[in-house]
Specification:
The chain is mainly β and 281 residues long. The protein has one domain. 4% of the residues lie in helices and 36% in strands. The strands form 5 sheets. The protein has a 4-stranded antiparallel beta sheet, with no helix packed on it. The longest helix has 10 residues.
Amino acid sequence: MRLLWCVLCLCACDVPFNLPAFQHVADGAYEDAPVPRPDLPLDTCGMIGARCCNDTSCSDGSTCLALSGRSRCVGFAGTFESNPAPSCGFSPCLESNPLAAACACPSGLVPSSVMLDIGCGDPLLAANQTGTAAVCAIATQPPGSDFAGLFVVADIAACEPTTTGGCMLPDPITGTCTCPAGVEQFSARVFVPGTIGPGCTNGFLGATLGVCLPTGVAQASLLGVYQLDADQHCRAFSNSLAGCTCPAGSLVSSLRTLVDKQPSGSFIPVESTIAFCLAAP
């Protein structure tokens, strides 16, 4: 009888977390994702998406994230962005991680970094400026995770000669700039520093930032992703709320970059923000 009571006490720390169905956003058109993500089962104490129970461990290899007296087992814990050579009026910490309140990962997570063009000056006619973007996630995601990695691959491999095929930040799950099989890929537009040479004109070039999102799993870390340009064009992928917004109560983790606009055939670099809507513990 005492053993049964202990099991019930352990599982009482778990609560369900709701996640709205995802939608694609492209030029203002919305398309429902084929598989909505269900609520987390109530019998998963210490597993990804659930409370960590003792605030120190998760039973499936995910990381226990504690914030404001609450906790959650997560596989993805936000991003941050720094400006290693402060200029353009930027501070060294350009975009902090809301889960760490700094340009850092929460305890227990080691960041994976990649260089991005963060822009400088007029947001609608920006100059180039190199910054560093970092992702906080575990390398091996347990079953049930709603995050399957992130990668950055340059448009022209020859402009990134020290990479394999222009892959600047591989997805740790696949080891390449691809998503694992059977997951959705959200592709954001970014700019990255490169080399000057044949086909590489100014030392910066376009690239794809891919976020890999499994469907049909319990919501654990990430409520949605979108990209919003400085001209207010909603470019990418969002949750079921209208436009480029995060659900109420979520935390927003952002990366700043440039996108390539081509009105009337001319190239104009415009600042853009990639936002990750994080489920709060």
